[in-house]
Design a protein that fits this description.
globular, alpha+beta, 4 strands, Nuclear Transport Factor 2, Chain: A
Length: about 160
Amino acid sequence: MVDEQTVWQDVWPPVERLIQATLAEDNQAIRPLLSPGQPALAAYELFGYPVFDLLLKTVLGRARLGVTRALETENGRYIFIEFVWPDPEREDGGYSAADLVTVRLQQSGRQWRITEINPAAIELPLTGARARGIMVSSQVVRETDKIAAGADYLTR
């Protein structure tokens, strides 16, 4: 069983580095964070770093994020990290389901690598139909035709 300290020290950092590399448009920093033969790497190979702007929801242009939960599955084979980009217009720091992202990681040797990114809560899997809906309804991309850049975020 993975403890909270392991989540913060070992599991969360690759997710944080992927967010930073996506915002910096740093292709060299992205590939080592992704697990070979998994959906996250396949998406990257097809679309490059902009796919992570959508999946990680950096297109929201929010200044901070918070981890909501970590869930271990298959006797520690996978860990799901769910995080949220809180709505800055809500005084209570609240958020909606549209602000959540889930990243699945798998340990490879001594490091954790990202296998999948789901732009939703842990309980809501990403399907082809949902992916098309996300792509079509992304107002930030549609209105500006570019990805929001730069975020100063909070991880705890």
